[in-house]
Amino acid sequence: MNDDVDYGLDMRTSEPNTLRDWLALVRAPGVGSVSCLKLLERWATPAAVLAQTEAALREFGLAPETVACLRQPDWQTVDADLAWLEAEGCHAITLADALYPPLLKQIHDPPAVLFVRGDPAVLSLPQLAVVGSRNPTPPGEQTALDFSAALGRAGFVITSGMALGIDAAGHRGALAGGGNTVAVVGTGLDRVYPARHRRLAHDIAEHGALVTEFLPGTPVLPGNFPRRNRLISGLSLGVLVVEAAAQSGSLITARLALEQGREVFAIPGSIHNPLAKGCNALIRQGAKLVETVEDILEELGAYAGPALSGENPPSGALEPSAEHLRLLKFVAYEPTTVDTLVAASGETPEVVASTLLLLELSGHIASAAGGRYYRL
Asked: If 0-12 CB within 10 Å is exposed, 13-18 middle and 19+ buried, where does residue 106 land?
């Protein structure tokens, strides 16, 4: 991990008038995370930036439109932001706040302001990101659920992007295991995307937090989601990729995690499963191959919560669900081909391959020569 970064800011919780200045600063067009940090390094506080002359701001290299908005902020819109923050459970955390998550502050472009719905203190707890395909196989989705539940019981907050598929499974697994979860979203917190996750978003806010760098009113824009990925990895000690195609957006999160000095974990898959290609590629590139929860705890166990020493530690091997075990009855005690299992079960080759992997990892079957499997 990188050492803590000191931006030379007053580390006190923002008062309302100070927060108004922060919001005016980040609402100025052309002021992103990096440029905002440079402005604060030059003039220390948002209030000082807003007090600069037009000549000083132009000399700093800001565009005319940016200078105009800093000289005459849209206070009406800023006050609308403050009104939104008056709702129960809504918060804004600035870089000067003691509640700003320390791990996120270590990345080279932390957001100047984080918007949070839920408990902002959760953002400073040990987190593990769980990411993967938006269209996972049923076994892959179950794997994300199982791992997230076990890791949540071990004391980790499960962090993801609330997208369809593996992201949602990670959040739901954490909640099912009685743990906390954080969703980093690519819109303003006054809307839920995807809309079908409205109930999930409510549950996450009740047992963790929704967080974004995007101002209230920010719509769904494709470019926002790669940006939010750096926050998913930046908040976390490591990233677990469950299922990912060769060009999956989850691989962006994994690459960002490596750049930020975080651990990257990947669950291997069958060479016949296209959703395993991204994970297998990560393993070839140096990501840690994960078969059990303990594989992650070996690297990050020192950060786990006290639940690890309780009476119910997480199981070392994932227990297959009833759906997975349905395939098991078709596996003979002598080598059986995948084609035979596809024909007998009626499942697709991809689903059968992923299920066989889980059954093998859990000790129910073993592989034989020629891509065959036999029951133990």
From this structure: middle
Same domain membership, residue 115 and residue 141? no
**For residue 95, what are the domain limits?**
16-120
Q: Which of 203-212, 248-257, 332-341 has the lowest mean pLDDT?
A: 332-341
Q: Which residue has the higher pLDDT, 318 or 203?
A: 203
Q: How far apart are CA 227 and CA 209, in angstroms?
A: 19
Find out whether 248 and 221 touch, Cβ atoms under 8 Å: no
3 state SS for 254-301 = HHHHHHCCCEEEECCCCCCCHHHHHHHHHHHCCCEECCCHHHHHHHHH
Residues 6+ apart with CB under 8 A from 138: 323, 351, 354, 355
How many Cα neighbours within 13 Å face the side chain of 182? Answer: 29
**Length of the chain in terms of residues written:** 376
CATH of the domain at 339: 1.10.10.10
Token pair of 336 as six digits: 């059986």
What 8-state DSSP symbol labels residue 210? E
**Segment 279-335, tens digit of pLDDT:** 999 999 999 999 999 999 999 878 765 434 333 433 334 566 777 788 888 888 778
| Boundary of a domain, candidates 92, 120, 148 | 120
Instruction: Identify whether residues 82 and 226 lie together within a single domain.
Output: no
- Which of 270, 288, 309 is at the close of a domain? 309
State the pTM of this model. 0.77
Contacts of 191 (CB under 8 A, 6+ apart): 219, 220
